[in-house]
Amino acid sequence: MKRAPLRNAHAAGGATPTAPRPPSPRSADVQANGIRLHYLDWGGDGPPLLLLAGMGCSAHVFDRFARHFLDRFHVLALDRRGHGDSECPESGYDADTLAEDLLRFLDALPVERVHLAGHSMGHIELCQMGRLHPDRVHSLVFLDSVYDNASPDTQAVMQRNPLPGMIPAWPADEPRAFEAYAALVRHRYPALDAVWGAPMETQLRHTVRTTPDGRVVDRMPAAVAAAFQATFAGFLPHYAALHMPVLGIICLRDGTDYLSSEYMTDEQKAQVLEYFGSDLLPQVQRTIQRFRRAVPHARVLEIPGGHHYCFLKHEQLVATTMRDFLQSV
After folding, report:
1. pLDDT value at position 22?
2. 115 touches 136 (CB < 8 A)
3. Measured between alpha carbons, how far is 236 from 324 in angstroms, rounded to an integer?
4. 3-state DSSP call for residue 118?
5. If DSSP codes are grouped into helix, strand and coil, which group holds residue 103?
6. In 3D, which of 220, 210, 215 has the Cα closest to residue 173?
7. Could you give the C-alpha distances from 143 to 89, 176, 178, 287, in angstroms and in order?
8. 81: helix, coil or strand?
9. Does 13 map to a domain?
10. pLDDT level of residue 45 (50, 70, 90 thresholds)
């Protein structure tokens, strides 16, 4: 059944209800900015709330989280180009093109104004839309996505990260079943294993493909992944240009979610914890201070010992904070 255009709706107040069983979203495609973009539509009552996943993830990572907003908002999630079930062209992975994709996606639905919530790399689209197209944005929610990756001090801290040198190499013999692929991901990245469940498994299924000879591989080509990494690392956020309501949910990670008893020695575990405590956490706190100065009207929630996938590990806290914020806008 065709849905009515998402236009000119208004939110109402109300307490967080008991979250129902996660509904199945409608899966759809649109042509926007010259490519095919895939999105999920959970429906719901109220103005549109668009969820943007982090780099490498599909929109299905929000399959459970979306349920918290359906009584007050019309909830959607987008696969950005090169991700999930969207088209993966050879180019267009710069910040301006990603924002233009989002703008044309809203035009195609059509949606006049939207609440935007972005996880991790989603801060690029949030910052670009808020700066370049503020008339299309009701509010911005940064889900552990307040970064200043282009700053020299952040880059210096990232270069001291010991984790890349500890993660086991991907085996030359690619897995022949999704279950084996998922097990490898969970083994190599304990932080993902810590939030593993139906949303993470489902979203992973939408980021892989099976080759003609039966190998399960990442859908995203290496060249596209490198282009995204370059954009992510070099993006300069203009936070001071964000004059709409803003919520920043920021996780103060202590490193415990990144420890593996399967391939790390005690000495390596201590090295990881030392890096998080002495290098990364102070840098995150400096970033928060810069964000607060640049966006003095922003609401900020800091989660000590928080997980990067805060909407999975700290689901109720994040959902309640986000609902309170959105309903006040």
Report:
1. 66
2. no
3. 29
4. strand
5. helix
6. 215
7. 27, 34, 28, 15
8. coil
9. no
10. confident
Q: What residues contact residue 90 under an 8 Å CB cut-off, 6+ apart? A: 223, 224
Domain-embedded: residue 20:
no
150-169: per-residue pLDDT in tens?
A: 999 999 999 999 999 999 99
d(CA 122, CA 5) in angstroms, rounded, equals 24
d(CA 258, CA 189): 7
pLDDT at 5 exceeding the cut of 60: no
pLDDT in tens, 59-104: 999 999 999 999 999 999 999 999 999 999 999 999 999 999 999 9
Write out the residue range of the structural domain in which residue 246 sits. 26-328
Q: What is the DSSP letter of 28?
A: E
CATH number at residue 81: 3.40.50.1820
Tell me if residue 165 falls in helix, strand or coil: helix
pLDDT tens-digit series, residues 285-317: 999 999 999 999 999 999 999 999 999 999 999
Could you report the per-residue pLDDT of 7-22, keeping only the tens digit for each? Answer: 333 333 334 444 556 6
- 114: Cβ–Cβ under 8 A, 6 or more apart, which residues? 47, 48, 49, 50, 106, 136, 137, 138
Phi-psi region of 215 (alpha: psi -120 to 50; beta: other; left: phi over 0): beta
89-148 pLDDT tens trace:
999 999 999 999 999 999 999 999 999 999 999 999 999 999 999 999 999 999 999 999
DSSP type of residue 111: B
How many domains, the chain? 1
Residue 281 lies inside a defined structural domain of this protein? yes
The number of beta carbons lying within 10 Å of the beta carbon of residue 118 is 26
Q: What is the percent of the chain where pLDDT is above 90? A: 92
Q: Residue 152 falls within a domain, yes or no?
A: yes
